[in-house]
Design goal:
This protein is of the alpha/beta class and about 270 residues long. It has eleven helices and 14 strands. Strands 8-7-6-9-11-10 form a six-stranded mixed sheet. A five-stranded parallel sheet has the order 2-1-12-13-14.
Length: about 270
């Protein structure tokens, strides 16, 4: 029985204007009121998605958000961290050196803000993300030695494609590398995924993946779509996501989430 609905944001729950449509809001609020857990699953920190959390009314005692692509599971109403997993500053040395040698940009995120690395070529992450996330300009050598969540390489699609095709084995073996958007490539801890965070949350709430419905469109949604009892690919999803989904709905600009939910729960 489905008891939890997990939702990617960009190009899934959010339309092209980065908004949750009225239809999606009303449908999710109704299901939440009826006792279903509604969980936003994002690469961003909680502060950057808080307006969406509030819009959906996900502030009850057992409402959580999966942030940093699974790296943090956080309770919404008091920001209590259920689980956190990240990387050390030293862990980023490999990808930083590669970016330096190949004239590529890099941003490094802790669990609150983004550090734009000023010793590298300028990143487009701030413009592509178009979020309220705090950006701080910093040289890599000036970063504090503390836990970080991930690194981001934001560039033109062809540039990222070429970079990924030419990464040496040492980089591929050191990070979980995923595309969250065509112009955003993420470097995460090995084995990190939204499914990793969801597994922790499901167990905490006395559930398992047989209780999960998940919606997504991109590579960083793969594991949760594959693990969920009902894995729903958006109409605008990549072919890779559609291939492993159990269901396909219409696209994010036509209320694809609400369209599928209303069909599923009203049948």
């Amino acid at each position: 029985m489905i008891k939890m609905i997990a939702l990617d944001l960009d190009n899934t729950l959010l339309n092209s204007a980065k908004e949750i449509s009225d239809e999606n809001v009303s449908t999710l609020q109704k299901l939440h009121k009826n006792g279903n857990s509604v969980v936003l699953c994002t690469g961003r920190p909680i502060n950057a998605v808080w307006p969406y959390v509030k819009q959906l009314g996900l502030t009850d005692e057992n409402d959580y958000t999966i942030t940093f692509n699974g790296g943090m599971v956080i309770r919404n109403h008091d920001r209590k961290i259920l689980n956190q997993k990240g990387l050390s500053l030293e862990d980023f040395s490999l990808i930083h050196q590669y970016a330096l040698d190949n004239d590529l940009p890099l941003d490094i995120l802790d669990f609150e803000k983004v550090y734009e690395l000023t010793d590298l070529v300028k990143s487009s992450y701030k413009e592509v993300l178009n979020s309220s996330l705090e950006f701080v300009q910093k040289d890599f050598s000036k970063l504090e030695d503390k836990p970080y969540s991930k690194a981001i390489m934001s560039e033109q699609v062809v540039t990222l494609n070429n970079a990924r095709a030419n990464f040496p084995a040492v980089i591929n073996d050191h990070y979980k590398i995923v595309r969250s958007q065509p112009k955003i490539m993420e470097f995460l801890p090995l084995n990190m995924s939204k499914a990793y965070g969801l597994n922790i949350l499901l167990k905490h709430l006395g559930m398992d993946f047989s209780n999960l419905m998940a919606f997504g469109d991109a590579e960083n949604d793969y594991e949760m779509i594959e693990a969920a009892k009902v894995g729903v690919a958006m109409g605008n999803a990549s072919d890779e996501i559609k291939a492993i989904a159990t269901e396909i709905t219409i696209d994010h600009d036509n209320d694809g989430v609400a369209f599928f939910l209303n069909q599923y729960f009203n049948d």
